[in-house]
Amino acid sequence: MSLFKARDWWSVVVEGENGQEEECDIGCLAVANINNETPSKDKIIVGGFSGSLRIYHPQAFRTEEGEEVSGYRADHVLLETTLNYPILQLAVGKFVSSNDHNHLCVLHPDRLAVYTVTTDNATAQKQHGQQFRLTSAYQHKLPRKAYSLLTGAFGGVKGKDYLAVQSLDGCLSVFEQESQAFTTPLPNTLLPGPLAYLSRNDSIVVAGSDWCLHCYKYQAIAVAATDNPSEGNSSASNKSSSQGSKRLSPEWTQLLGEPVLDMKVVGEGAGASLVVLTQRSFSCLKDSGVFKFIKKLEYNPACLNAFMLGNAVQVLVASHTETLLVYHETELRWASQLPFVPVTLTRTNFEGIRGGLVTLGSSGHLQVSYLGTDPSLFVAPPTDARQINYDQTDQELAKLHKVIKASTKDAGSLLNVNKGVSGGMINENDLRVYATVGNQLETWTGPGGMTGPDGVGVPAVPVAIRLTAHSPLNSVRVHISVEKPLAVSQDTFVLRTICDTSQILVKFYQNEAYLPPSLTVTFVTSFLTSTGAPRIITTNVELPLKLVVQGSQPSKEADHKLTISTNMPAVNLPELFPELAGEAGVATAMGLQYFNETEVTILSSRTTNRYRLQSDSLAALWLVLKELIARLRAYWGRPGWRGKVDELLLGAASPLPTNELYAEIDAHFLRRKKHKELEAQLVQRATQFRAVQRRLLTKFKDKTPTPLTNLDNLLEGTYKQILHITDLINENIKGLEQDGSQLSCVVRLVLEMARLQTNMEPNHYSLLIAALSPIIHPTMDQGWEERTDACVTFLLRNVLGKNVTIGGQAGRDAPPPPQLTMPQDTGKLKKHVSILLDKVTKAAQQLVLSDPPQDTTADTREETIYRDENDLAEPPTPQAPEDPTQVPLGSRLGEDRARSARIRSSRLLSGRTASTLPPLTPSSSVGEERDEERGTLTAQSSEASQPDESVDEENLGDLPSPPTEPPDPTEQPSTPPNEQPDSTQELTEDLAPQEKLQETLKILPKPTLKKEATIETPDDIFDGDDGDMW
After folding, report:
1. Non-local CB neighbours of 682 within 8 Å, separated by 6+ positions
2. Contact 131, 124 (CB under 8 A)
3. I need a surface site. Which of 54, 706, 1013, 1030 has the fewest CB within 10 A?
């Protein structure tokens, strides 16, 4: 850390393609007179990994007042272009044989290109400046992936510069301008490192993998390369590597003991020196390999530059603490603070500054600075001898306190998170996010994607995201999240600044051949406001169903069937799904097919106002059911129907598919269990592999050769087993994702059916879906099974259990939360899920939330019996108020009061019957009416009863009464077979007192008969003989 800062003279941020930050490295900066201007003027050449190339000419300019100022201007950019390949290194020299001008050499990963920078003065106009062009002179195709570039007058040539490219495998390829000379592997170079050329000795210094410097004569390298042609393959080169290394011996070798970061050659002739930067020191060597000095460093260096000043070596070292240190050989002369960590730096002269430091950061920050300090121009003002008015000062201080208080923002306002609605606009003053889904689908032709049943690519839907800002916003980042197997063309966008409106276009497609659990896409937009406060906006949109299904022929037979009843006439299916209906579509039957060839059939019945979904895969019914419900609500909620028809009511007549749910849970759990076993096998094989390696290393180090005793075969066999196990792990991970998607679909289907059957309130449904979550992450540490088991157990014990007190708070004797570890089996989880679903559906129990305390001074409960409005029988007499305290069903308090409640119920009923009875009809009497009422109450109080003979069943229409089979009060909830009882048996035993209390208090569910969700459907309403369906 330094008290002084490097003075900024000229700076700019180099941007890559699409306005993103440019990524640069040590070789991406060059300073030279690239356009051969006379008199010579240096230019800055910057490249990046995105392929962008820019040439700058920084210079000072004078203002209208005649003052000389510095800074970046648009006319300082001489050339800006984008090459087709990443730029690894830049070099300037005499690389063309036809002239002795400076040319630009660009090193790409697979080729070496030489360009000429020329000035087109003929077509340029004076008011618009000069026009620079980049012309390709020649290029060489590299047989190996390149790492670094070295230039110099190899072989002692005059007026020319040759090129040497070091590959990733340590081979050195030399190019004599337009022609390739040779390619040879360097000994002791398993990994590439920095290179340097000593012109006086005509030698190349290589930083080897053994942390030593090796100096080779150029002629010796050329002679050693005679048996290693460049056209040879890698195996031939590796074989000749050992042969070449025997013939190629270094002139001198110097041990450093640390990895080499960079090397620079300073001086000329006999005074040339080699400066080497390592991880913890820098050193200076003569061209003969003898150390001049070594300086140990107490910081982590990033890059260096060296130059001669007189007879002394001046070294500039930049550290990772953003500090620049200037050394006179080993003596520290100056230290200054930099605005960023540079990856490379150099020294040059420009108009207006001599000896300027050019630094380039890893993210494209380019700066020209100088060392020094600015003199203080502050002059102490004369003292004011006037008297102080304390009253006026107090008033001014009070105003300032108000301003400070008004401008203070708490953490909540700074970390505000705004959530959007599906497909809508975010009402945000700083930024508005719109997401528009395209109407037309197109075939996906990009990378990835699957093939449909007809052999062509899957469809893709375009989505346009429009960002509108009313004020400049910085660091805008848009992240797109979609559940597998759906994929997006690009999931992250970074916009440096938004001033007006920006638009992003992405495409969604199906990437894997299994069922998607959801079509919801989430756009998360984060940005910084003009005041620096972070904001997050979340926008959800629904992708079209046609993205994952296509029309097909309906099927009569299926393994899984689901029936949905409504109170509205059945709608023609082509009207609900116009984009999926064929030309000769049937109004009462439609077939859908996923792209993994799973078929779903939708049937409708005009006579019973029911819809049936059937398929051989239960998970395939979820998306179609969700889309059917959404389109029915949209159809009957159109502006033309509002106010003319009743509210659309839906009910599920099919039982919950718990057995299929348990099968999916077992399949997902077996995948996780197999993953654990494969990981254990991989650890065992890796341990064995390392043990065999140690044994072989011991034998190789032994001076007396000993037989390997088949250790080499064991090593090879273990290595093949490791590769096989890793392939199995990858396949199992893909299967885990597919099983997780199947389980998510089935869980969502079960939850939706439970909501339809019980007409659950939104807050109750949110509590249920939070416990039995359909979101399944493919994690191994805390999987879905243990998390769901903990949530369901908490819900049963603290909300629906015996120890629940009034208000929904858990008792003090509640057990501690369980540890989230992977269970041995899924028995407890399936039993807990069975208890939860049994309490929600069979016992018709609503989830009890934490409500505010009720007034216990008066009894506010009423007994209400909901009957069909078409029933001609007399309505029963309302029950008298029972108890002033609201008791949750199945709680310990309700179990204790069940006996007293039965006695009070009979007494209050006999006392209020005479005063509340309706007028008698001529065909009835008081005794008969009481008997009929008592019979009705008895029939309605239990969970299921026989139908009343006085009620005309034909008048009930399409919504029949609840199931008529009375359950056994002592019957335990249905659990999967072959499961052992656990500590949660008290939760199961809690159902019987609950049913007794319900029978005593005769409290029915809240919805009316129109909203009744438990619907008994005849088996033959969707037979093939029904003329309304086919």
Report:
1. 722, 725, 726, 729
2. yes
3. 706
Of the candidates 683, 658, 693, the one whose C-alpha atom is nearest the C-alpha of residue 838 is 658
Q: Can you tell me the distance from the alpha carbon of 558 to that of 361, in angstroms, rounded to the nearest whole number?
A: 64
- The one-letter code for the residue type at 253 is T
Which tokens go with 758? 């019980």
Q: Is the dihedral of CA 189, 190, 196, 202 positive or negative?
A: positive
Count the residues in the chain: 1030
Q: Are 358 and 345 spatial neighbours (Cβ–Cβ below 8 Å)?
A: yes
**Domains of the chain, each with CATH number or no CATH:** 7-370 (2.130.10.10), 412-545 (2.60.40.1230), 548-652 (3.30.310.200), 759-912+925-1014 (no CATH)
| DSSP assignment string, 561-616 | EEEEEESSPPPPHHHH-TTT--TT-BTTEEEEEETTS-EEEEEEETTTTEEEEEES
Which residues share a beta bridge with 13?
365
| Contact call for residues 531 and 508 (beta carbons, < 8 A) | no
Residues 6 or more apart whose Cβ sits within 8 Å of residue 439: none
Give yes or no for a contact between 1013 and 758, defined as CB atoms under 8 angstroms apart. yes
- For β-strands 291-296 and 281-286, DSSP reports them as antiparallel
Contacts of 555 (CB under 8 A, 6+ apart): 591, 599, 601, 614
pLDDT of residue 822: 83
What is the structure's pLDDT at 25? 92
DSSP run (H or E) holding 250: none
d(C-alpha 256, C-alpha 465), whole Å: 56
- Give the 3-state secondary structure of residue 776: coil
H helices present in 759-824, as ranges: 762-771, 784-798
Return the structure tokens found at 821. 């570890």
The reported pLDDT for the residue numbered 642 is 52
pTM of the shown model:
0.48
The pLDDT score that the predictor gives to residue 407 is 67
Strands (E), 186-249: 195-198, 203-207, 212-217
pLDDT given for residue 641 in this prediction: 61
Q: Quickly count: other Cβ atoms within 10 Å of residue 128's Cβ.
A: 8
- The position carrying tokens 């994607």 is 449
Cβ-based neighbours of 15, under 8 Å, separated by 6 or more: 21, 22, 52, 364, 496
Task: Give the bridge partners for 593, in sequence order.
Answer: 550, 599
Q: What is the b/e burial string over 448-481, where b = at least 16 CB atoms within 10 angstroms of the residue's CB? A: ebbebeeeebbbbbbbebebbbeeebeebebebe
Inter-helix orientation angle 926-941/898-916, to 10°:
150
Strand-pairing partners, residue 417, are: 536
Structure tokens at 725: 């196990």
- Averaged pLDDT in 10-residue chunks for the chain of 1030 residues: 77 82 91 88 92 90 75 88 92 91 94 90 56 91 93 90 92 92 87 92 91 92 70 43 60 92 89 92 92 93 92 93 93 91 92 88 91 64 71 90 72 42 46 88 81 78 90 88 90 86 90 89 88 86 90 87 87 85 74 88 86 90 90 80 67 86 91 92 94 89 80 92 94 90 91 87 85 82 85 81 50 61 86 87 49 38 33 38 41 42 46 39 37 37 34 32 41 43 41 37 36 37 42
Burial of 153 (0-12, 13-18, 19+ CB in 10 A): middle
Burial 255-284 (b: 16+ CB within 10 A, else e): ebeeebbbbbbbbeeeebbbbbbbeeebbb
